[in-house]
């Protein structure tokens, strides 16, 4: 594609779970001219810190220096791949997985980089899928329900262990000395903007969805003090910060960041944002009722509505959380691509995704005789319980790897249908379903979703939805368009109704979904607490404590 010297460009940088990707986008029409990926050198820390310090159960940490390397490596490489003059770049936009939290000093230095703290687990970034704060989330939910906190219904009645307050409370109670040394509890989406501009601005998206900020207020000091007296001033001392409007400029590129990226100092840097939410702009899905599912290691479902409604188990509803003038709704599944990857890596390593997809694609719906629950990483929506776990029903001596693989795909589709139907029942209609993310490359998976949902599936017209969405926000922040809506209209793209539901397959999936729902409610709504009990036993054994036959604790 020829590059006109009069054209201007923006950079979108998508910070994912395992890597960061930079994309060069032409402002006039959204054409993606070049991209580059940088894998995080430390990936995700789940077993131990870099120095070998062991981690507990359900921990998931990252090293913030890996994010800076994305700016230093991927951005210049993308510019080279695009073959453009970097002087023609007018803005940068970024997105991050939420809620990914950086404990930092007042100048933004992450605590793990402070001398003497590299061996302290709580000094590191808590990745979105860090679920070790579930007991703390349980306490927040119990207290909020008891006090009748007005903000609780805005989150479907439950706060997740993945979110800012639960993770911060865990830090306080497990390492109070480190909590005292921490000046700022920062979303990585905002921390990376701080590194680019030298200015710390909280984005409205994560503040609303993950920081329990509603109608301009966080949970009250009295509420926090009742959780733990030392937590009373958490908001005032460590969390509160000026809020930046999505699509606005948080500041301009600093000299240091210009040196990292090779971009001009002083260009606009958009307010930080979240991967799922920026993708709505890239998919031209900003109107009420257009649900976008960003399907990768996990799935995030986002949609705008004209009014506020209480949707059980949603991750939140925020005024302007996706685009100004509408209420942005969010729900999600904690594990999707992660579930398939785990199955191949640990249980069927002799296969590839391509081979199992081919074999599973030869089957008719219901042929394998299986049904699964997609809770291998807990349940984000609509149960909001990360103590739940996966389940497979119907396995026999004739069950083959491709049977299980297809059942897992179907389980994730049933999880999405549960979310869609919960929104519909709450008076928030889903009129269009738009798929984005890496999993859209699997036609079998997409067709199964269309059949399970009984809805046509539109598909984003980009392989880099979040990065394109960030670039669209950068164009608005740079003043190339008056707002995000107009930038999305010019730069976004979507293929409409690419997958149509097969009525015969949908009939079978209706039957299977009814059975899924029975299992979902039986294990997920308290009738059978075996999953939570197994987790509790696992933690006791890992800690070296077991219960003897006489009901007494024994320490090995």
Report what the structure shows.
The protein has about 550 residues and is of the alpha+beta class. It contains 18 helices and 23 strands. The strands form seven sheets. It has a seven-stranded mixed beta sheet with strand order 15-16-14-13-19-20-21, sandwiched between helices. A six-stranded mixed beta sheet has the order 3-2-1-5-12-11. Helix 1 (about 65-80) packs across helix 9 (about 255-260), helix 12 (about 355-360) packs across helix 13 (about 400-425) and helix 15 packs across helix 16 (about 485-490). The N and C termini lie far apart (about 65 Å). Residues about 545-555 have low confidence and may be disordered. It is an enzyme of class 2 (transferase). GO terms for molecular function: ATP binding; D-ribulokinase activity; ribulokinase activity.
Q: Can you tag this structure with a few keywords?
A:
seven-stranded mixed beta sheet, globular, alpha+beta, disordered C terminus, 556 residues, six-stranded mixed beta sheet, 37% helix
Overview in brief:
The protein has 556 residues and is α+β, with helices and mostly antiparallel strands. Helices cover 37% and strands 19% of the residues. It starts with 8 loop residues before the first strand and ends with a strand.
Secondary structure: number of strands: 23
Distance between the termini: 67 Å
Give the strand line-up of the largest sheet. Answer: 15-16-14-13-19-20-21
Mean pLDDT: 95
Helix content: 25-40%
Count, helices: 18
Uncertain spans:
547-556
Broad shape? globular
Main beta-sheet strand count, sense and barrel state: 7 strands, mixed
**Roughly what fraction of the amino acids lie in strands?**
15-25%
Radius of gyration: 23 Å
Structural class: alpha+beta
């Amino acid at each position: 594609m020829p590059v006109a010297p009069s054209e201007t460009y923006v950079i979108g940088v998508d910070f994912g779970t395992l890597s960061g990707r930079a994309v060069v986008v032409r402002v006039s029409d959204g054409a993606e001219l070049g991209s580059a990926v940088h894998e995080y050198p430390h990936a995700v820390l789940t077993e131990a810190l870099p120095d070998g310090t062991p981690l507990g159960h359900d921990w998931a940490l990252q090293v913030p220096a890996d994010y800076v390397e994305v700016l230093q490596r991927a951005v210049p490489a993308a510019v080279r791949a695009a073959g453009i003059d970097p002087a023609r770049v007018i803005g940068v936009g970024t997105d991050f997985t939420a809620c990914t939290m950086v404990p930092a000093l007042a100048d933004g230095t992450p605590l793990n980089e402070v001398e003497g703290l590299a061996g302290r687990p709580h000094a590191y970034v808590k990745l979105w899928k860090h679920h070790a704060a579930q007991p703390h989330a349980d306490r927040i939910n119990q207290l909020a329900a008891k006090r009748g906190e007005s903000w609780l219904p805005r989150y479907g009645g439950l706060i997740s262990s993945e979110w800012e307050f639960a993770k911060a409370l865990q830090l306080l109670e497990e390492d109070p000395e480190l909590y005292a040394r921490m000046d700022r509890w920062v979303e990585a989406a905002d921390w990376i903007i701080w590194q680019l501009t030298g200015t710390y601005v909280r984005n409205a998206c994560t503040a609303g969805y993950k920081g329990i900020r509603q109608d301009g207020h966080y949970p009250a000091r009295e509420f926090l003090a009742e959780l733990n007296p030392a937590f009373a001033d958490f908001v005032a001392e460590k969390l509160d910060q000026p809020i930046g409007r999505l699509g606005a400029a948080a500041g301009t590129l600093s000299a240091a960041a210009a040196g990292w990226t090779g971009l001009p100092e002083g260009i606009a840097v958009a307010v930080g944002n979240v991967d799922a939410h920026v993708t709505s702009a890239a998919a031209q899905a900003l109107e009420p009722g257009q649900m976008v599912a960003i399907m990768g290691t996990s799935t995030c479902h986002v949609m705008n509505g004209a009014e506020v409604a209480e949707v059980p188990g949603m991750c939140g509803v925020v005024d302007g959380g996706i685009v100004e003038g509408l209420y942005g709704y969010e729900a999600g599944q904690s594990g999707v691509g992660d579930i398939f990857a785990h199955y191949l890596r640990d249980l069927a390593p002799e296969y590839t995704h391509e081979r199992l997809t081919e074999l599973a694609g030869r089957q008719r719906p219901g042929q394998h005789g299986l049904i699964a629950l997609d809770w291998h990483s807990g349940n984000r929506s609509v149960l909001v319980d990360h103590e739940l776990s996966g389940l497979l029903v119907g396995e026999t001596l004739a069950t083959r790897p491709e049977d299980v693989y297809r059942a897992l795909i179907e389980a994730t589709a049933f999880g999405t249908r549960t979310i869609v139907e919960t929104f519909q029942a709450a008076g928030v209609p889903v009129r269009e379903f738009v798929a984005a993310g890496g999993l859209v490359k699997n036609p079998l998976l997409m067709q199964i979703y269309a059949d399970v949902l009984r809805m046509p599936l539109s598909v984003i017209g980009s392989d880099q939805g979040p990065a394109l969405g960030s670039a669209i926000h950068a164009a608005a922040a740079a003043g190339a368009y008056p707002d995000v809506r107009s930038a999305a209209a010019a730069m976004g793209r979507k293929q409409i109704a690419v997958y149509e539901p097969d009525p015969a397959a949908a009939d079978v999936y209706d039957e299977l979904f009814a059975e899924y729902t029975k299992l979902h409610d039986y294990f997920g709504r308290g009738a059978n607490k075996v999953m939570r009990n197994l987790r509790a036993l696992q933690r006791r054994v890992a800690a070296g404590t077991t219960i003897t036959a006489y009901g007494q604790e024994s320490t090995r």
